Design the sequence.
């Protein structure tokens, strides 16, 4: 039997998957993985099967990217500026006022999106949920890859805003640490964050492998149940 036609535009299908109401995600993901398997695209099917259902926070962030693209673009631009100014601050090339101004623009962009989320979500947007959304938006704003996923409405997990505040990152040149000291501190911080990122990525990979295995077991059980029900029906 010749293989079925490949899924014509997987990226478009993934965009549509993340745009669905949250309660429809799991079924749509499984249907897409099934179609990929039938099309003999087992690697892509495994990747799709491993996609985790977004949390309410992640789903809300992705919904904002579609409903309020201008606000999300403003956040991404503010995050890029803040990241650039902080890097110059570490090198002693930006002063406190410049960093504070960039941080204020980033906070304003986050605030605008939280207001939009509150208006669209109504009573469902609790204070804890909005706090987690704020953390995710702030973290995505200063991370290039997360910014890209957020702008595309395909963020996959909640993020935590970590790092230094602007007043900690930059001190006035006439009384601040030497450039060598700042660079050394920056290198140490990057090394620590890189190690933490590797640890978290390893844990996430292990959890995804475990989830994928359990989904396969569930699919097998469902197939066996269908066969048993068919057998039972034929004996009536």
Sequence:
């Amino acid at each position: 039997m010749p293989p079925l036609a490949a899924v014509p535009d997987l990226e478009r299908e993934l965009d549509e998957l993340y745009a669905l109401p949250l309660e429809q995600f799991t079924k749509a993901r499984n249907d897409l993985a099934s179609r990929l398997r039938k099309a003999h695209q087992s690697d892509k099917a495994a990747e799709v099967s491993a996609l985790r259902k977004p949390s309410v926070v992640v789903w809300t962030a992705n919904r904002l990217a579609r409903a309020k693209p201008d606000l999300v673009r403003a956040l991404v631009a503010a995050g890029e500026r803040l990241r650039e100014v902080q890097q110059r601050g570490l090198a002693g090339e930006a002063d406190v006022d410049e960093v504070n101004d960039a941080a204020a623009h980033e906070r304003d962009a986050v605030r605008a999106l939280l207001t939009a989320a509150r208006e669209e979500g109504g009573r469902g947007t609790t204070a804890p949920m909005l706090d987690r959304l704020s953390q995710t938006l702030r973290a995505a704003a200063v991370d290039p890859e997360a910014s890209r996923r957020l702008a595309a409405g395909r963020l996959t997990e909640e993020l935590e805003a970590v790092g230094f505040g602007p007043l900690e990152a930059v001190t006035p040149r006439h009384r601040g640490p030497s450039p060598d000291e700042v660079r050394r501190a920056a290198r140490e911080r990057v090394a620590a964050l890189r190690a933490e990122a590797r640890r978290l990525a390893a844990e996430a990979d292990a959890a995804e492998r475990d989830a994928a295995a359990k989904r396969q077991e569930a699919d097998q059980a469902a197939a066996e149940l269908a066969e048993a029900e068919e057998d039972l029906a034929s004996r009536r």
Observations:
- Residues 177-236 form one domain.
- Residues 118 and 127 are 10 Å apart (CA to CA).
- The chain has two domains: 56-170, 177-236.
